[in-house]
Amino acid sequence: xxxxxxxxxxxxxxTDEALRAHLGQSGGRKGDLSKFVQEAVQARLRTExxxxxxxxxxxxxxxxxxxxxxxIRARTGALSRSRFKxxxxxxxxxxxxxx
Length: 99
Prior knowledge:
Elements: H1 13-25, H2 32-51, H3 62-76, H4 81-98
């Protein structure tokens, strides 16, 4: 897992016990809970994207970038040029500050 992010989750006691029992029976080791959650989230996202009829490209690909830009242009088409520039400037400043 590259650049992991820490989450704090709440689940029912039943869910916790069932998952821990499952991981224990399958020889689970340290990190398996995180891996299980990550795989479950990714599977759910893929399922929902398919249900919406969107087979998105990975943003890391040229096609993915083109698709992302097209979506951004579609959502921001009603903004004035100056408002758009302001939003971009704020986003870039925020991203640089978070480094």
